[in-house]
Amino acid sequence: MERREIIEEAVALLDEAGHDGVTMRVLAARLQVSAPSLYWHYPSKQKLLEDVADSLVEGVAPQSTKEANPHERLLRLLADFRDALLSHRDGGRVFAGTFALGPHVLDLSEAATSLLLETGITDPGDALDAWFNLVRFTVGSVIEQQATTEQLNELESRRSAFENASIARPTLRAAAERLFAPDEDRRFHDGARLLIAVPRGGASPPRTI
Questions:
Q1: What pLDDT band is residue 197 in, cutting at 50, 70 and 90?
Q2: What was the pLDDT predicted at 67?
Q3: For 19-78, what is each residue's pLDDT tens digit?
Q4: Could you tell me the end-to-end alpha-carbon distance of the chain, in angstroms, rounded to an integer?
Q5: pTM (2 decimals)?
Q6: Residue 27 near residue 6, CB atoms below 8 Å
Q7: What kind of architecture, by CATH, is found in domain 3-43?
Q8: Which candidate, 193, 70, 76, 72, places its Cα nearest to that of 121?
Q9: What are residue 83's phi and psi, to 5 degrees?
Q10: Domain spans, the chain
Q11: How many other CB atoms are found less than 10 A from the CB of residue 122?
């Protein structure tokens, strides 16, 4: 049994049962091995999830170097990172709960920090800090989106309570449709643009973050 086989089965279990459903006992049964055999490869669920998190971002890297604007290339990379996490159940929770330093995470971080240096940041440490902030924004966005997906059908039933509560809050009342009919893609891209200071249709500033 190879580690790649274990990770592939763990990802399949994640998609079926979610973060909390990925247990060493269930995974061992799916692999038809004994628990000690699985623990020989991974001494804990946390270590297993680190490799799962790394596998979720496999292949996420700049798809084109022809785009001259590093801000736009960074936006595209961030969007691809988000899509990779959204493509798996509880992908945001898995990534947030680990300190993954596998090859795919490192390749993604290298690509992102290099792009941030191209935007005008001069210190690699500052670029890495900026990338951590972008990762936290993206992962938090994914976690919230995945957590609220099942609640969207219930939102409309709470509209009247919101309208009563927002009588004295005119700004929130005027923005009610954004609450009850959220466009998560727009929210993410607008937030990402704010973070890396890319105005729509305008020239990019010399420095980000």
A1: confident
A2: 64
A3: 999 999 999 999 999 989 999 999 999 999 999 999 999 999 766 555 678 999 999 999
A4: 45
A5: 0.85
A6: yes
A7: Orthogonal Bundle (1.10)
A8: 70
A9: -60, -40
A10: 3-43, 70-196
A11: 8
Task: Write down the residue that tokens 């951590």 correspond to.
Answer: 132
Tokens of residue 184, six digits: 């998560």
Token look-up 């795919």 returns 104
Q: What is the pLDDT of residues 85-116, one digit of tens each?
A: 999 999 999 999 888 899 999 999 999 999 99
Distance CA 99, CA 106 (A): 11
- Which of 17, 115, 15, 111 is closest to 55 using CA atoms? 15
| Alpha-carbon distance values, 57 to 52, 80, 82, 105 (Å) | 9, 9, 9, 7
CATH superfamily of 70-196: Tetracycline Repressor, domain 2 (1.10.357.10)
Question: Do residues 101 and 53 make contact, with C-beta atoms less than 8 angstroms apart?
Answer: no
- Return the SS3 of 158: helix
Please name the residues in contact with 135: beta carbons below 8 A apart, sequence gap of 6 or more: 81
State the CB neighbour count (10 A cutoff) for residue 143: 18
Q: Tell how many helices (H) and how many strands (E) occur in the chain.
A: 13, 0
User: Is 115:77 a contact under the CB 8 Å cutoff?
Assistant: yes
- Per DSSP, the residues of 59-128 read T-S-S-S----HHHHHHHHHHHHHHHHHTSTTHHHHHHT----SHHHHHHHHHHHHHHHHTT---HHHHH
Residues 6+ apart with CB under 8 A from 126: 209
Q: Say if residues 124 and 110 touch (Cβ distance below 8 Å).
A: no
